[in-house]
């Protein structure tokens, strides 16, 4: 009876080992090829000006919109990972005066989030390309290690788009973006631009100075993606308060595509990891 059970276990083990060898030699490479194809599509979405015969990235115009207000209207021009033009009209609430803001002709504003996301995609493709079809994976652990490395790059790429930087108001005031405009921005305006998921967001803060004898309890605001009216900060010798906040945005379709590719790729990596883990639970004493 015992011998029969052991023989059955031996036969099962042989079948499992055969399946696992097939997984390592064939299926892993099929998944890696699929991942490379998807990530190449993702990287095409981030195409930037290159050297030689490549044409520069095309300019795309996006109309800024907001569901809550018509205080801010305008068009942002994106060229790859840079804002090449901005044309914004701002209706000032206090006096309904119309203010026109535009980039200086010689200026472009690099969107670091797009640049970083693209670099992480390139790194993931590089990791996959170093395991071509002739490469033989020896253990499940080796596949898991590669999947973890690829997933780390893809998660970082996605996070750069889904998690804008939190900035203090003095950091926004000191950013080079404030010097991009002609004529120069009035001293009572701050502007910030960032990516949030598949949207390009423009925020305009209107400020007013707090009088030295103000009875307001001055408490400087910390870092935030979007500051609210009433947020205070110190700039130079002045204490300032945000009086109005205008946020407008536009959807960038190719960023939406890229985020979908990241999600699909992460799912593929996880599915492969799960398959490897199922086998390794059978051989807990072996280095899978």
Task: Chart the SSEs and their pairings.
Elements: H1 2-45, E1 59-64, E2 72-79, E3 82-91, E4 98-102, E5 109-110, H2 112-129, H3 140-162, H4 169-174, E6 189-196, E7 199-209, E8 232-235, E9 238-251, H5 253-282
Antiparallel strand pairs: 1-2, 2-3, 3-4, 3-5, 6-7, 7-9, 8-9
Main location: cytoplasm
Family: Belongs to the rogdi family.
Subcellular location: Cytoplasmic vesicle, Secretory vesicle, Synaptic vesicle
Summary tags:
alpha+beta, RAVE2/Rogdi, elongated, 5 helices, 42% helix, disordered N terminus, Protein rogdi homolog, 9 strands, 288 residues
Characterise the protein shown here.
The relative contact order is 0.16. This protein has 288 residues and is an alpha+beta fold. Helix 2 runs antiparallel to helix 3 and helix 3 packs antiparallel against helix 5. The protein is built from 5 helices and 9 strands; from the N terminus they run αβββββαααββββα. The strands form 2 sheets. Strands 1, 2, 3, 4 and 5 form a 5-stranded antiparallel beta sheet that branches. Strands 6-7-9-8 form a 4-stranded antiparallel beta sheet. It has one domain.
* Mean pLDDT rating: 86
Give the proportion of residues in helices: 40-55%
In what range is the share of β-strand residues?
A: 15-25%
Structure summary, number of beta strands: 9
Family: Belongs to the rogdi family.
Organism: Heterocephalus glaber (Naked mole rat)
Protein name: Protein rogdi homolog
InterPro entries: RAVE2/Rogdi
């Amino acid at each position: 009876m015992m011998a029969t059970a052991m023989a059955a276990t031996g036969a099962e083990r042989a079948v499992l080992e055969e399946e696992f060898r097939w997984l390592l030699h064939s299926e892993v490479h099929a998944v890696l090829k699929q991942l490379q194809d998807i990530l190449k599509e993702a990287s095409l979405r981030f195409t930037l000006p290159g050297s030689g015969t490549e044409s520069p990235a095309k300019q795309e115009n996006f109309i800024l919109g907001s569901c809550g207000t018509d205080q801010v209207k305008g068009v942002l021009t994106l060229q790859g990972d840079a804002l090449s033009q901005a044309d914004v009209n701002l209706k000032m609430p206090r006096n309904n005066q119309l203010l026109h803001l535009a980039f200086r002709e010689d200026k472009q504003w690099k969107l670091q989030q797009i640049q970083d996301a693209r670099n992480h995609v390139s790194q993931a493709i590089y990791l996959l390309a170093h395991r071509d079809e002739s490469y033989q994976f020896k253990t499940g652990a080796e596949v898991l290690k590669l999947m973890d490395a690829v997933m780390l790059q893809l998660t970082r790429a996605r996070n750069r788009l889904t998690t804008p930087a939190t900035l203090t108001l003095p950091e926004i005031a000191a950013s080079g973006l404030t010097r991009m405009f002609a004529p120069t921005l009035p001293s009572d305006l701050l502007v910030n631009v960032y990516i949030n998921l598949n949207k390009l967001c423009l925020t305009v803060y209107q400020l007013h100075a707090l009088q030295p004898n103000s009875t307001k309890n001055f408490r400087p605001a910390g870092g935030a993606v979007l500051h609210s009216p009433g947020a205070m900060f110190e700039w130079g010798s002045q204490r300032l308060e945000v009086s109005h906040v205008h946020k407008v945005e536009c959807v960038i379709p190719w960023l939406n595509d890229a985020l979908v590719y990241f999600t699909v790729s992460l799912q593929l990596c996880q599915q492969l990891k799960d398959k490897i883990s199922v086998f390794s639970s059978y051989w807990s004493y072996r280095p899978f």
